[in-house]
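User: ok so my PI wants both of these folded by tonight, can you help

Assistant: No problem, let's get them done. Here's the first:
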Amino acid sequence: MSTNLQNEKKSALNLIINGKHYEWLQQYITGAEVRELANIPQEDEIFLAIKKPWEDETILDDTKTDLARPGIEHFYSKMKFPITLIVNGRPKPWNEEKISYEQVVKLAFDNYVENGRTIYTVTYDKGPRQNHEGTMVKGDVVFVKNKMIFNVGATDKS
């Protein structure tokens, strides 16, 4: 093989996104390319892990990261907060990655009454991959994502 052909042939550079190994054939990768490669939702933030005592770097869609530096670059994503949950058709701000059955009821009715007479039914849809849709009962906790839908009903056993 001629020297020119060897120089033209690129070797893959390694990177890790949210704990999963990927290969990239270019020296630089943008935040948008990281997002697409790892299927990261647009509403999530992307960070480049930096060794302590320095802070991790926020990676915007147009930020270029050099993958040819020594070591393997580690990227991770996190949901931006607050997010908006849709509870009984109304938007409600939320600041955590998960929500409990009791917290959903409080968002729907401003309080949670545990008197043995009131029964709450909770269903959800458009959730993250861990729990895309389903029902909740007392004690349940589910992961949330922006614009996840919850429907909550209250029935009085009289």
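One down. Here's the second:
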Amino acid sequence: MIVSDTISLALRNLGQAKLRTTLTTLGVAIGIASLAGMVSLGVGLEEQTVGRFMSSGVFDSVTVLPGQTGGAFGLGGRGRGRGANRDRGTAPPETPRKPLDDAAIAEIAAVPDVKEVYPNIAVPIEVQFEQEQAFATLSGVPLSQRDQGAFQTFAAGTFFADDSTRACILTLEFVRRLTTKAAQALIGQDITIGYAAAAVTPANAAAGMAPPRRVTQSFTIVGIVERPGGALPLAGGNLSGVMIPLEQARPIGAEAIVGRQSILGTPPAAANRTYNSLTIKVRRAAAVPDVQERVKALGFTTFSVQDALENAKRVFVILDIVLGLIGSIALAVSSLGIVNTMVMSILERTREIGIMKAIGGSDADVRGIFLVEASAIGFLGGISGVGLGWLVGRVINFGANWYVRSQQAGGPTDLNLFALPLWLIGGAIGFSILVSLIAGSYPARRAARLDPIQALRHD
């Protein structure tokens, strides 16, 4: 029997039992919809998480922290091995902590594939706007961040025009804490920031003490973004509510650092200014691991979002497996319906099978007809299930976006909790056919083994 005859007979047999075939296909569709929906939920959550990282422009960023203090074993403590040091009760000398200063910036900037290095300046401030006051963190933003990360879209206004303009950008969350006015109404308005600094004079510098003083400056609001700029939370960027050009933040940071440290001891000279962390912008994201290794070799500690992303991807892989197993339960139940349909078909077509074998049909021909019927049910059920899963996902996404919009006026409404990439669509349909073939293999084998004489005698 040629392949076309096998397919034609299988489809004709399915058409003769339309109701039973439809119900069995519907069961497979529900199983596939459950499986595809569960896996698409995991894929959607992963895309939401990774997508936010991508839009924040941190895949080409590396955060640099000061080098760790270490002893003989690089652990920053006493040696514990046996030897003369232990016998004499002495500890190995500790390696000095390598600071992040302007010399370190120049050293890191010379590393291959490094496009830019700048300090992360974060200063606690008090903001006054008209009669309102609020506390925030002031941070410096380089002009190279124009149209990057958080500065790709603005709730109102634009990015800094240049380094010399006394302008600032606020976050939407901070604006809501500061005033009840609309974001657009704040553009062009002035705010006053106040911070603590040290009144350094030759006399109190020699004495190692500098009393704090309050410094105020005014800036014009030129833009409002939905979220703060900054490479990583370690850089303090995600705590910022007020952002100004980096070149104007440097002297403020220097004063604030002097003010903070002078209360504890002698104010450092400007030439010895250090930073808590730096941000490296890499020319291409693929070079981030190499840049990290080279910077670590210089004696600094590094961190990038790719480190955290690798762990997050492992979590999502486990989540996808768990969700897939849960969704497969419904598909396993629907496979029993396929077995039932095929067995009932054997009982109804026993004489037909006997006639087919009596006129020369082989066991393989009979088995092939039933396997084609099972695969056809799986194929139709797979397509219907993917469509049903997509429709349910759209409804849930619509409901989630409506809820977010109702809870946060002007908040983001682009949630996509369910994602159906092409590989998932093809995999779901293929898996549906595979499960259907497995479920139909027993009925097909049973039909092929029928004795033609006994089958012809069957009523």
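The radius of gyration is 34 Å. The first helix runs from residue 3 to 16. Good luck tonight!
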